[in-house]
Write a structure and sequence with these properties.
Length: 330
């Protein structure tokens, strides 16, 4: 991974999201390059998929999906490097920003939107950006992906900083919107990560860390919402979950930063305190109430037999990492 570049002076004045990037000409599509991508090739295993019975059709799709996990596993060293680098920057106040177009953008937004309820993160800590804005989540706005200036402007609009990390997501590794965003992120000095499902792409060559699970031709030729989308979802799951584990958002496999804001989550919080503190459910409910629904504090109280204020002091001294607050790590 490259060293951090110095930050570039940028104007972070409010940006008109309706007009940003429109003065930037669309990038000319390299159709010859597009046609050579593995994701654009015809898959011989599915050449007659419309001529078989439905069970055989689904078995064929499932066989192709089974290839995705192996492709992602081959990228674990790069995924691990990304997790450690992102976590280090988050400890300095940085954010994780995912940006993409179409399916890639939607998956990034989905992953970001699930972090607050799962890990109690602030809404602006993990950010998902999609070409065309929120409307593009439900409606195709395809032309925007050809404008690199809009990708750069989207990062300007959130005031990207050198402490931030940016994941550019593009199955083809050639989407101008994403490449424009990565170029701006590098100017600012943010960490850049590329997630694509092709080899030797423009994206993988432009970023600090390239993650490229090569899934091969799609079940339906060129439909990267299928195997490519599945691979992207798996990688994004691994990155966000891995970063949160490194930041102490879990204790073992328990979501100890969960906020009991509804009946289901309250039952989950009680069960987490019960299991982590090795107490019965009634005791867990009592401790959780005394701790003001702070799951971590309730666990420390139960394990160490201390009051809520002392439990919070131990957690603060351990930077919120429960295992350290309990003195379990030498």
């Amino acid at each position: 991974m490259t060293q951090d570049a110095p930050a570039t002076e940028l104007n972070h004045a409010p940006v008109d999201r309706e007009t940003m990037g429109r003065n930037d000409p669309p990038a000319a599509p390299d159709l010859a390059t597009l046609g050579s991508l593995s994701t654009e090739q015809r898959n011989p295993a599915t050449a007659d998929i419309d001529a078989v019975d439905t069970v055989t059709m689904l078995e064929t799709i499932n066989d192709q999906d089974a290839l995705v996990a192996g492709a992602v596993r081959a990228e674990i060293p790069s995924i691990a490097a990304a997790i450690d680098a992102i976590a280090n920057r988050m400890r300095q106040g940085g954010r994780l920003v995912s940006i993409g177009a179409g399916t890639s953008g939607r998956l990034g937004v989905l992953d970001a939107s699930e972090c607050p309820p799962t890990f109690n993160t602030p809404p602006d800590l993990v950010v998902g950006l999609i070409a065309g804005g929120d409307r593009a989540l439900r409606h195709p706005i395809e032309a925007v992906e050809d404008r690199p200036g809009e990708g750069a402007a989207a990062l300007d609009a959130i005031g990207l900083t050198p402490d931030d990390s940016v994941i550019g997501i593009a199955a083809s590794g050639r989407t101008p919107y994403v490449l424009g965003a990565i170029d701006r992120a590098k100017q600012i000095g943010a960490l850049t990560i590329g997630l694509s499902t092709t080899t030797n792409s423009q994206l993988s060559k432009a970023v600090d860390i390239a993650i490229t699970p090569v899934v091969g031709p799609e079940v339906i030729t060129g439909s990267t919402r299928l195997k490519s989308g599945t691979a992207q979802k798996l990688v994004l799951n691994m990155i966000s979950t891995g970063v949160m584990i490194r930041l102490g958002k879990t204790y073992g496999n328990l979501m100890v930063d969960v906020q009991p804001t509804n009946a289901k989550l309250r039952r989950r919080a009680v069960a987490i305190v019960r299991d982590a503190a090795d107490i019965d459910e009634a005791q867990a409910e009592s401790l959780l109430a005394q701790a003001g629904n702070d799951v971590k504090a309730a666990i420390v109280m139960g394990r160490l037999g201390i009051d809520p204020e002392t439990a919070r002091e131990r957690l603060d001294a351990a930077s919120g990492i429960l295992r350290d607050a309990l003195g379990e790590r030498q």
